Amino acid sequence: MKQTIQHVLVFAIATTLVGFIGHRGGASEARGTPVHILAEQARQALHPPAKPLQCKITHLDTNASISIEGYHGYRIVFSEYFTKYLPDPDPSPIRLSPSTNIEEFIEIVLFPLEDETPSGFANLIPWSGFESMYHVQPVDMGDGFGFHWFGRMHLWDQDDLRERLGLIGGDNRRELATVGLSIKDPGNMTANSMACRMDRFKPKKESHTKCPRIRLDSSPILSTNVGLKGIEYEDDTDLLNASRDSHCASRRTAF
């Protein structure tokens, strides 16, 4: 009987150690949301249902494939398409300009939260190095759903993901957005895209300013003086937001 109890205790200890080692090695998804579910949530966050075919999952780890200094993470790769319009040798108002689809890649690596990663970890990950028309860089996107999120992607994509998934911590979003405003890439894609997202960093209860709105019967001479014909002061927040949203949506098309 005593020997049997000893065998049970040895088996229990061995099982516990194996479980701990396996968990530290990242072979399982631990207590986090299953990776395949997070991949689909991220895909929808990158491109909402209005444009579901623009972004697709091209790679998804079933077992952790990234190993760095004892940390093990899951790689997810998305592809998205941009339309690039080409110079038209024979422009015509009744014919569409020639265009081509440009495929871009977004890469994410997830590490279980139980394994706290050190500062600067995003630059240690062996990224696939996909080429891009636009600026991409490694980013620490913070924590969420039981994982620490890292990515190599466009700055506007990382900010959309963090905003829509509610990720916490990571690299400072405002600082990344400010950096993005000065980046020069084709069509100033990064600068224009980040400019459209700067409102996210304003105080939630920021007071609206009164700006001039022009009526249809306005005078050709414009001024902001109160009482000038054709000018009226009112809260134009909705108008500005609609204009900004339309501009931001158009930036998904490459020039």
List keywords for this structure.
255 residues; alpha+beta; 2 domains; 6-stranded antiparallel beta sheet; two-stranded antiparallel ribbon; 6 helices; 30% helix; 25% strand; disordered C terminus
Tell me the fraction of residues in β-strands, as a range: 25-35%
What is the β-strand count?
8
Sheet of most strands: 6 strands, antiparallel
> What Rg, in angstroms, do the CA atoms define?
25 Å
Terminal CA distance: 80 Å
The figure for the number of domains is 2
Mean pLDDT: 73
Listing every helix as H and every strand as E from the N terminus to the C terminus, the arrangement reads HHEEEEEEHHHEEH
Oligomer: single chain
Number of helices: 6
Low-pLDDT runs of 5+ residues are 8-30, 209-255
Helical fraction: 25-40%
Secondary-structure-based class equals: alpha+beta
Shape designation: globular
Summarize the entry for a quick read.
The chain has 255 residues and is of the alpha+beta class.
Account of the protein in words:
The structure is a single chain. This protein is an alpha+beta fold and 255 residues long. The protein folds into two domains: 13-174, no CATH class; 207-244, no CATH class. Helices cover 30% and strands 25% of the residues. It contains six helices and eight strands; from the N terminus they run ααββββββαααββα. Strands 1, 2, 3, 4, 5 and 6 form a six-stranded antiparallel beta sheet that branches. The protein has a two-stranded antiparallel sheet with strand order 7-8. A hairpin with a 2-residue loop joins strand 5 (136-144) and strand 6. Helix 2 crosses helix 3 (155-165) and helix 4 (173-181) packs across helix 5. The longest helix is centred in the first third of the chain and has 23 residues, at 2-24. The N and C termini lie far apart (80 Å).
